[in-house]
Amino acid sequence: MISSDGIRGYNDMILLCLLLEKPSYGYEISREIKLRTAERYIMKETTLYSAFTRLEKSGYISSFYGSETNGRRRTYYQITEKGKVFYQEKCEEWHATKEIVDKFMKNGEESLWKPS
Amino acid sequence: MISSDGIRGYNDMILLCLLLEKPSYGYEISREIKLRTAERYIMKETTLYSAFTRLEKSGYISSFYGSETNGRRRTYYQITEKGKVFYQEKCEEWHATKEIVDKFMKNGEESLWKPS
DNA sequence: GTATGTATTACGACTGTCGTAGTAATAAAA
DNA sequence: TTTTATTACTACGACAGTCGTAATACATAC
């Protein structure tokens, strides 16, 4: 289980990535992250929902209510065009971050596949 | 230039990595990071010095005063045994973080060198 | 004596995460 | 039919790390 301190700053990217596949809602996204990371990363609910609010305020996602109901009413979110651009930027930033942090890792595997 | 929001959580690792090579002080570390990342990452002075304070409080580094004086007096820091262990842990965490975040990157290069 | 480079400290603001708790709706079990 | 479990979300306050801005302090060169 990874502390979110390390992932902090990429939670947005994770959410947008999943919304890129299909519109979804908090609870499902939460389960999906758990699943895809084999429980190695669990995004806290408060973190997740506050990220949704923030992303919507910024215009990266938009919301609508779902009609299915196996419990409480769902708020679905879908990624906007602006959100797609933001996601791409975040991906590039992530790529750059990896290169930088790898420079400060001894016994680093970056030395094995150093591209240049 | 990378925003520290992405690196946040690994600033400690960066500092410890450099201190692993030799004892050093804020100003030098700052220049060294700039240099090694070709100015792509610049750790803000306030961030850096407050990280030093925090790391010392946690027992990961210890400080002493330098005698050389080409300006204001320097506070040198050196990594402790506890700090070395912490650095290793951070490296492992970084490794895990990369694997996780990569799963949420489309057009991801992780698909090129996926180890397993 | 003032500007420049070296080196550190102070302080308050902001943002994202987290713990804890509560609300709300449905279905299944007792 | 009350309880319990699962689904789904919200509220609130605390905390940590980063950042902007500014000040301080010492030394050297102009």
Biggest sheet features of chain A: 3 strands, antiparallel
Largest protein-protein interface: A-B, 34 and 34 residues
Number of domains of chain A: 1
* Helical residues, percent of chain A: 55-70%
Outline of chain A, from the CA principal axes?
Answer: globular
Secondary-structure blueprint:
Two copies of one chain form a homodimer.
Chain A: H1 4-7, H2 11-21, E1 24-25, H3 26-36, H4 45-57, E2 61-65, E3 75-79, H5 81-102, H6 110-113
Antiparallel strand pairs in A: 1-3, 2-3
The structure holds a DNA duplex (30 and 30 nucleotides).
Your description of this structure?
Two copies of one chain form a homodimer. The first copy, chain A, is mainly alpha-helical and about 120 residues long. Chain A has a single domain (about 5-100), classed as Winged helix-like DNA-binding domain superfamily/Winged helix DNA-binding domain (Arc Repressor Mutant, subunit A, Orthogonal Bundle). Helices cover about 55% and strands about 10% of the residues of chain A. Chain A has six helices and three strands; from the N terminus they run H-H-E-H-H-E-E-H-H. The first copy, chain A, has helices at about 5, 10-20, 25-35, 45-55, 80-100, 110-115, and strands at about 25, 60-65, 75-80. In chain A, strands 1-3-2 form a three-stranded antiparallel beta sheet. In chain A, helix 2 (about 10-20) crosses helix 5. The radius of gyration of chain A is 16 Å and the shape is globular. Residues about 110-115 of chain A have low confidence and may be disordered. Chain A binds a DNA duplex (30 and 30 nucleotides) through helix 3 and helix 4.
